[in-house]
């Protein structure tokens, strides 16, 4: 396993991050694995050298954090691990149990610490941008928690580049703890961030940790696979369905995978990790082959011709507008 600095910080993370939304309570999502089934995947990831784990307070209503915390306590040393968790989305029906107000951030951090069974969070991520809370309030609260030792580093997720830049500028101007990472959906068929957000991250020294690197399995042959997630996932059809360029991208992946003699997931992930802005894709693992596919993708080098072939179908979709 190789390790890289996360953005311009001194924090080093494995080139793969284990996404733990897959682990928790099946009542939350039918494809989620309960603790007994989840623990072997966390253990195997550790044995492969992965030190970076991502969860969130809303995943299975906090059960994902509990499972991850117990597994890391049993299988690893806390000081060797990099644990990321997130907050923004509603955790109850109460009006203050959502967003990025001072009240909700502090409540969320305290609750996550308890569920994870730790006294600090390595990377605390704004799960989304909060349009209702002043950025001054959010940034100041996050800085306070860093100075209190409850958070080590800050990250953000899925927002417009101009909003992210406003927050970065406010942090810099007021000498507050800065963001070092950005989680955003980035894969072969979701590439809008190449226009603004990714160049901004590169310019500002922000490490990119893409979520859904395989487009919820679309780029790994999940379509028509008959798996429980493929059959029950409501997001995939809305995000990727009915688009000819998506089908063309899938065909390009399948063609290269056939020539190479490797699974499609390896080709799709190899393309992603070839991008200099990408620090560590957040990869979910629920089948025995998922870890090996992800590990092998790290050493699969695609030619410039293969990369061009993979990127061609979406080329028209990411062009800037003609003013």
Topology:
Blueprint: E1 3-5, E2 12-14, E3 17-19, H1 35-47, E4 52-54, H2 63-75, E5 82-87, H3 102-116, E6 121-126, H4 135-147, E7 151-157, H5 161-173, E8 179-183, H6 197-204, E9 207-208, H7 228-232, H8 235-240, H9 244-260, H10 264-273, E10 282-284, H11 288-297, H12 304-311
Parallel strand pairs: 3-4, 3-10, 4-5, 5-6, 6-7, 7-8, 8-9
Antiparallel strand pairs: 1-2
Helix pairs in contact: 1-2, 2-3, 4-5, 9-10, 9-12, 10-11
Unreliable segments of 5+ consecutive residues: none
Helix content: 40-55%
The CATH architecture term is Alpha-Beta Barrel
CATH class equals Alpha Beta
Distance between the termini: 45 Å
- Strand segment count: 10
How many discrete domains?
A: 1
User: Going by CATH, what is the homologous superfamily?
Assistant: NADP-dependent oxidoreductase domain
- Content-based structural category: alpha/beta
Shape type: globular
Account of the protein in words:
By secondary structure, the chain is an alpha/beta fold. It has a single domain, classed as NADP-dependent oxidoreductase domain (TIM Barrel). The chain is built from 12 helices and 10 strands. Strand 6, helix 4 and strand 7 form a beta-alpha-beta unit. Helix 1 packs across helix 2, helix 4 crosses helix 5 and helix 9 crosses helix 10. The chain is globular, with a radius of gyration of 19 Å. The chain starts with a strand and ends in a 12-residue tail after the last helix.
Comma- or semicolon-separated keywords:
two-stranded antiparallel ribbon; 323 residues; alpha/beta; TIM Barrel; 10 strands
